[in-house]
Amino acid sequence: MASEPGRAPSATTHVRTVADGVTRVFAWEEGARIEVRNLGGEIVVEANAAGLRTLAGHLLTLARDGTPDGTHLHLEEGNGLEAGSVGLVLERCDDA
Fold first, then answer.
1. Would you say the pTM of this structure is higher than 0.85?
2. d(Cα 35, Cα 7) in Å, to the nearest integer?
3. What is the pLDDT, as a whole number, of residue 23?
4. Which end of the chain is more exposed for a tag (fewer CB within 10 A), N or C?
Protein backbone atom coordinates (compact mmCIF):
# COMPACT_ATOMS: atom_id res chain seq x y z
CA MET A 1 0.00 0.00 0.00
CA ALA A 2 2.70 2.53 0.91
CA SER A 3 4.82 4.05 -1.82
CA GLU A 4 7.86 4.38 0.47
CA PRO A 5 8.92 1.95 3.19
CA GLY A 6 7.93 3.27 6.60
CA ARG A 7 5.52 5.87 5.25
CA ALA A 8 1.75 5.87 5.58
CA PRO A 9 -0.28 5.27 2.44
CA SER A 10 -1.21 8.39 0.50
CA ALA A 11 -4.58 10.06 0.99
CA THR A 12 -5.79 8.38 -2.18
CA THR A 13 -5.19 4.93 -0.68
CA HIS A 14 -8.35 3.07 0.13
CA VAL A 15 -8.41 -0.52 1.35
CA ARG A 16 -11.60 -2.40 0.60
CA THR A 17 -12.59 -5.47 2.55
CA VAL A 18 -15.56 -7.64 1.72
CA ALA A 19 -16.99 -9.99 4.32
CA ASP A 20 -20.40 -11.63 4.05
CA GLY A 21 -21.08 -9.45 1.00
CA VAL A 22 -20.49 -6.21 2.95
CA THR A 23 -17.80 -3.87 1.58
CA ARG A 24 -15.93 -1.59 3.98
CA VAL A 25 -13.43 1.04 2.87
CA PHE A 26 -10.46 2.12 5.01
CA ALA A 27 -8.88 5.45 3.96
CA TRP A 28 -5.73 7.30 5.02
CA GLU A 29 -5.73 11.06 5.58
CA GLU A 30 -3.05 13.14 3.85
CA GLY A 31 0.12 13.31 5.95
CA ALA A 32 -0.93 10.60 8.40
CA ARG A 33 1.93 9.33 10.56
CA ILE A 34 1.33 6.38 12.91
CA GLU A 35 3.91 4.51 14.95
CA VAL A 36 3.26 1.53 17.24
CA ARG A 37 5.85 0.49 19.85
CA ASN A 38 5.88 -2.44 22.26
CA LEU A 39 7.45 -1.32 25.55
CA GLY A 40 7.09 -4.71 27.20
CA GLY A 41 4.27 -4.05 29.63
CA GLU A 42 2.40 -1.64 27.38
CA ILE A 43 1.79 -0.74 23.74
CA VAL A 44 2.24 2.88 22.64
CA VAL A 45 0.40 4.21 19.61
CA GLU A 46 1.95 7.53 18.64
CA ALA A 47 0.44 9.55 15.79
CA ASN A 48 0.12 13.07 14.48
CA ALA A 49 -3.36 14.62 14.17
CA ALA A 50 -3.88 13.19 10.67
CA GLY A 51 -2.78 9.76 11.92
CA LEU A 52 -5.18 9.89 14.86
CA ARG A 53 -8.06 10.85 12.55
CA THR A 54 -7.06 7.99 10.23
CA LEU A 55 -7.09 5.47 13.11
CA ALA A 56 -10.41 6.87 14.34
CA GLY A 57 -11.83 6.43 10.84
CA HIS A 58 -10.60 2.83 10.72
CA LEU A 59 -12.26 2.09 14.07
CA LEU A 60 -15.52 3.77 13.02
CA THR A 61 -15.50 1.74 9.80
CA LEU A 62 -15.20 -1.46 11.83
CA ALA A 63 -17.97 -0.27 14.18
CA ARG A 64 -20.50 0.38 11.40
CA ASP A 65 -23.76 -1.54 11.57
CA GLY A 66 -23.66 -4.62 9.38
CA THR A 67 -19.90 -5.09 9.64
CA PRO A 68 -19.41 -8.81 10.20
CA ASP A 69 -17.68 -10.19 13.28
CA GLY A 70 -14.03 -10.90 12.48
CA THR A 71 -13.61 -8.09 9.92
CA HIS A 72 -10.12 -6.75 10.46
CA LEU A 73 -7.32 -4.57 9.13
CA HIS A 74 -3.58 -5.33 9.43
CA LEU A 75 -1.23 -2.38 9.83
CA GLU A 76 2.51 -3.01 9.63
CA GLU A 77 5.78 -1.20 9.07
CA GLY A 78 5.67 0.06 5.49
CA ASN A 79 1.96 -0.79 5.29
CA GLY A 80 0.28 2.04 7.16
CA LEU A 81 2.79 2.39 10.02
CA GLU A 82 6.12 4.17 10.39
CA ALA A 83 9.46 2.36 10.14
CA GLY A 84 10.32 0.47 13.32
CA SER A 85 6.69 -0.08 14.29
CA VAL A 86 5.34 -3.39 15.54
CA GLY A 87 2.31 -4.78 13.73
CA LEU A 88 -1.18 -3.75 14.76
CA VAL A 89 -4.43 -5.56 13.94
CA LEU A 90 -7.76 -3.77 14.34
CA GLU A 91 -10.52 -6.38 14.49
CA ARG A 92 -14.21 -6.38 15.22
CA CYS A 93 -15.27 -9.02 17.74
CA ASP A 94 -18.87 -9.01 18.96
CA ASP A 95 -18.53 -12.20 21.02
CA ALA A 96 -18.58 -11.61 24.76
1. no
2. 10
3. 79
4. C
pLDDT digit string (tens) for 31-74?
Answer: 999 999 999 999 999 999 999 999 999 999 999 998 888 888 99
Give the residue among 33, 31, 28, 59 at the shortest CA–CA distance from 46: 33
Classify residue 94 by its DSSP letter. -
Q: Identity (one letter) of the amino acid at 57? A: G
Strands 80-81 and 72-77: parallel
15 closest CA partner among 70, 74, 93, 56 = 74
The Cα 16–Cα 9 span in angstroms is: 14
Q: What helix, strand, coil percent values describe the chain, rounded to 5?
A: 15, 35, 50
- Distance CA(46)–CA(37), nearest Å, equals 8
Contact by Cβ (8 Å): 1, 13: yes
